[in-house]
Amino acid sequence: MPSDTFSTLFAAKPVLLAPMEDVSDPIFRRICRGLGADACYTEFVNVDSLLLGCQRNKRKLVLAEDDRPTAIQIYGADPARLVEAARIAEEAGPAFIDINCGCWVPRIARRGAGAGWLRNPEAMVAMAAQVVRAVSLPVTVKTRIGLGPEDQMPIVELARRLEDVGVRALTVHCRTAKMGYTGTADWRWAALAQAEVRMPVIVNGDIRTAADIQRALAETGCAGTMLGRGAIEHPWVFREVKELRAGRTPAPPTPVERLNLLREHLIANAATRKPGWGVTYTRRYLAGYLREVEGGTELRTYLNTSDQLDDWLERIAALEARVA
Fold this sequence. Notes:
Elements: H1 3-11, E1 15-17, H2 26-34, E2 39-41, E3 45-46, H3 47-51, H4 55-60, E4 70-75, H5 79-91, E5 97-101, H6 106-109, H7 121-134, E6 139-144, H8 155-164, E7 169-173, H9 188-196, E8 201-204, H10 210-220, E9 224-227, H11 229-233, H12 237-245, H13 255-272, H14 275-281, H15 286-290, H16 296-303, H17 309-323
Parallel strand pairs: 1-2, 1-9, 2-4, 3-4, 4-5, 5-6, 6-7, 7-8, 8-9
Helix pairs in contact: 5-7, 8-9, 10-12, 13-14, 13-17
């Protein structure tokens, strides 16, 4: 992505689909982009596995022409391997390359990757500088406000230092690593970071609705917002925020629209994975698709026991006929 295009993206206060393992795949990215997501991120790519030739991680780098703008996110604990992986990712033609310095999952953070970098902010900055020098694409970072207590929240100073070494944008998940997904995200930290730097700061955490997006931008002055779990629960949020920005009251998706999108997602998953796995893979989205659909709870309970594509399609069609 040319520098001016990158700047234009963030000048428009974009709403971004977060990188989520086993969620932000090409199918879900296409769904969210079709509903109005301004840019998407891949699932995160383990640099060690990528450099060992792991086919699953190689597939994460494949971006179709209609899957843009999309950033490739990489993670690892070794700066040299992150540099090498960034060069490989650059060849795939993403919009930019994002470094995950925020994943709190213990098996990742304990070995120094993800939020493990927050134990040594100086090392994080030095690593980011190496990646920036190694590629011509914009490099961004996604992290958390710190590890835990107040004296371990380096995010404001960290933002300044990352900008100084050439990082082009920073996403701040406004929880500590120790919080995981518990507690409440404190958007004030994103506001403090944005006030100290010229690069875009993207606020993340507890943003689920179009109203949340508008409020997060107003309260923080940040350049963009990122949705993760909120998009899983309600992908129509991308469409709804655009309606709000246009001065219109967003219309919620109808029950038929919900069932149609579930069907579309299901068929795509079954076509790109082994049929049984493609069906069960879709279960994680059922709560969101079937929310507020009369009979949806019963259908979800049943589908969680079935891995047969024809069975799912038949049950979805039957409920659609009832609510149409």
